[in-house]
Amino acid sequence: MVEKYSFTEFDSKTMARAKNKHAPISLKTTTEVMRFIRGRKVEQAIMLLSEVRDAKRPIPFLRYNRDVAHRKGKGISVGRFPKKPSIEVMQVLELVKANAKDKGLSEDALTIIHAAAQQGPNLWHYGR
User: Fold this and answer.
1) Which of 106, 118, 104, 102 is nearest to 42 (CA)?
2) Strands 59-60 and 79-80
3) pTM to 2 decimals?
4) Which contiguous run of DSSP H or E holds residue 45?
5) I want to staple 110 with a disulfide (CB 3.0 to 4.6 A). Which of 5, 18, 42, 62 is the partner?
6) Does residue 95 contact residue 23 with C-beta atoms inside 8 Å?
């Protein structure tokens, strides 16, 4: 079975990627985490997500922000500290670093150009 990605301009010689399917985390909070790390260096993203995990830095919630409290911080009006998505995304970023090292790419120059969260399967169970 061929895996489909939403990012189509992938160059296997100069880019590395990793994917985590069926993670037990919220789609909405993961979307906000992905928006937060997009465009950053991998090392910087891992450092920021570790601060989020320790509840030192809030992630701004720009889209899914209904009933979300205000947070102190520069440029943040509403935000949260999503611990589980931060841990899962940090694991995926570590996999990206390992894949880049395996290909012979520089780990320091890795930049996140695409980060997306997708809906998992809806499991059907019989019953009332």
Assistant:
1) 106
2) antiparallel
3) 0.87
4) helix 42-53
5) 42
6) no
The label of the residue with tokens 């998505």 reads 85
Which letter, b or e, does each residue of 8-18 get, where b requires 16 or more Cβ atoms within 10 Å of its Cβ? eeeeeeebbee
Looking at residue 1, its pLDDT comes to 63
Q: Is the pLDDT of residue 52 over 80?
A: yes
For the record, the structure tokens of 100 come out as 């880049």
DSSP 58: P
Could you give the CA distance from residue 120 to residue 116 in angstroms, rounded to a whole number? 13
Strand partners, 59: 80
Say if residues 42 and 57 touch (Cβ distance below 8 Å).
Answer: no
